[in-house]
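Weekly puzzle thread! Below is a chain. First person to post its structure in token form gets bragging rights.
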Amino acid sequence: MNTLKEGDKVPNFTATDQHGNTHTLSDYAGKKLVFFFYPAANTPTCTVEACNIRDHYKELQDAGYEIFGVSKDTQRKQGNFSKKFNFQYPLLADTEKEVINAFGVWGPKKFMGRTFDGIHRKTFIVNEEGVVSRVIDKVKSKQHAAQILEEI
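Winning reply:
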């Protein structure tokens, strides 16, 4: 797993969100971005994390951040997740793992004694030049927005 680190330039990518809208990294040049990667929509920890960001979305926007949730779920599954919990931000349906691989968050994981490949729960804060300014490796789902805002 070759995860992006602080100081790395994020490679350009194109992905579709839960509404079918296309997002290309270059469209957000000059903006501060947050990409939070989660294993699967509608699972307990992922839901708590995404809802925490939803509940603090205004604070994150006031700090100048554009927010993106990313998993390999389908557009339909992301849409259902977004609608059920009223998320104000795009959830990228990265079924081809273009964004996941660009950030290097796909790799071996262990759960209940079993090893398998999956998405590692990580968050990347990207500056206006498209460079990673911070990586949150140990995401606290119930305080995730506060972790993001710590940078300020």
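Puzzle host: Confirmed. Bonus trivia for everyone else. The CA atoms of residues 18 and 76 lie 7 Å apart.
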